[in-house]
Amino acid sequence: MDHLSTLQMILLILLAAIAIIDGLTTSILASMPITIAVVAGIIVGDVKLGVTIGATLQLMVLGVGSYGGASVPDFTTGAIIGIAFAHSTGKGTEFALALAVPVGLLMVQLDVLGRFTNTFFQHRIDKNIQDLNTKAITRNVLLGMVPWGLSRALPVAIMLFFGQKIVDTIVNDLPDWLMGGLKVAGGLLPVVGIAILLRYLPTNKYIAYLIIGFVFASYLKVPMLGVAFIGAALAIIQFQRNANATPLVATTTQTQSLDGGYEDGEYEE
User: Fold this and answer.
1) Backbone phi, psi, residue 155, to 5°
2) Are the C-beta atoms of residues 74 and 57 closer than 8 Å to each other?
3) Distance set, CA 146 to CA 93, 142, 158 (Å)
4) Helix, strand or coil, per DSSP, at residue 267
5) Is the sign of the CA dihedral 28, 157, 96, 98 positive or negative?
6) Where does the chain have alpha helices with state H?
7) What is the pLDDT of residues 58-109, one digit of tens each?
8) What is the Cβ-side half-sphere exposure of residue 53, based on CA atoms within 13 angstroms?
């Protein structure tokens, strides 16, 4: 691929393999588009592009999880490919997103293949457990990572090394209605992600802050970073108000009764 060195391509291939393995095991990078995209941006030398692509794709996967063996679009791998080609061709963010979405959808099929292949090692581990062979258990657990890593590394390697031909096939040979649909979906999915997020947040309680953020972003055209700073300031104010609020304290006093004695009484202040 033009404008990317062999070392950069190798690092991107390794990143794709490490991302899926990390998501299944250590979760150091959390296998999220935003974190992997930043690393990919550092590798290609364009951190701004990495942050932009990663943040957009992260909104697409909000509320989406792979539960019970279900396979979901892998926009983490899509982010790596989108950033690599957008940087090498100089076609910018829209091109990267248009490429990342179909790649992420393609990864669903390869994810199924990775799961299917991995069952071979799972059955071997079951037998090792019955035989109490701890060394074999460890060995097969490590070998089980291989199909997962290859399910991401191989397609990334093919796309990177074949370069522009693969991009032309994806971009030019696909029908206009499909590419147009993908672009529309790319614009709608972040909104869907935000809607899902708001569904589980105490939005009704803090609706005023939501309106303030909407006005700043939509009408005053404040950049997202500025809106984030405003939100952080409002959050600090709200926290300080809650911390300084005087709680109701029950206090016990003595009052003199009619017969000259004292009675205990309680009041709140």
Assistant:
1) -65, -35
2) no
3) 32, 7, 17
4) strand
5) negative
6) 6-24, 33-44, 47-60, 75-89, 92-130, 134-143, 145-162, 164-172, 176-199, 207-214, 224-244
7) 877 765 655 555 567 788 888 898 888 888 777 777 777 777 777 877 777 7
8) 37
CA distance 165 to 97: 18
Q: In whole angstroms, give the CA distance from residue 64 to residue 201.
A: 16
Residues 6+ apart with CB under 8 A from 192: 60
Q: By C-alpha distance, which of 198, 227, 199, 204 is closest to 214?
A: 227
- Residue 247 corresponds to which tokens in the numbers above? 């709680």
**This prediction's pTM:** 0.59
Note the maximum CA span of the chain.
103
Say whether pLDDT at 179 is over 90: no
Give the burial class of 20: count Cβ atoms within 10 A of its Cβ; 0-12 exposed, 13-18 middle, 19 or more buried. Answer: buried
Paired strand residues for 256? 262
Chain center to CA of 176: 29
Positions of E strands within the chain: 250-256, 262-268
Q: Is 6 helix (H, G, I), strand (E, B) or coil?
A: helix
CB 20 within 8 A of CB 30: no
Minimal CA–CA distance to 231: which of 251, 249, 247, 214?
214
